[in-house]
Amino acid sequence: QLQLVESGGGLVQPGGSLRLSCVASGFTLKNYAVGWFRQAPGKEREGVSCINGVGWAYYVDSVKGRFTISRDNAKNTVYLQMNSLKPEDTAVYYCAAHLPAECPSVGYDYWGQGTQVTVSS
Q1: Residue 97 and residue 115: Cα distance in Å, rounded?
Q2: Are strands 33-39 and 18-25 parallel, antiparallel or unpaired?
Q3: Along the chain (121 residues), what's the average pLDDT of each consecutive run of 10 residues?
Q4: What is the DSSP letter of 90?
């Protein structure tokens, strides 16, 4: 079964950190571009970050300097390290994989079920 599973979400205070993981099963994630998206209540889904097949990383302006996307090919996993979290980062975070290994805004092939991130004091 081809699937992506996210983990690592939770409740954190403003200024805190979380690391999200996106693990693939049934396919080799290093051959894909992997994007992280988020959706807050009442808002549209937003692209947060993406890493392409050669390791180039892209970020939405609101997270630049705070979030870092990375791969561990041996673990078939992509991470999103989130530092200096703000209340406006609160959302359900999803990872998605795209072939070819570019970073489009739409058209991803596989999606995870999401993990909740809540930033609140």
Answers
A1: 16
A2: unpaired
A3: 95 98 95 97 96 95 98 97 98 96 90 98 96
A4: -
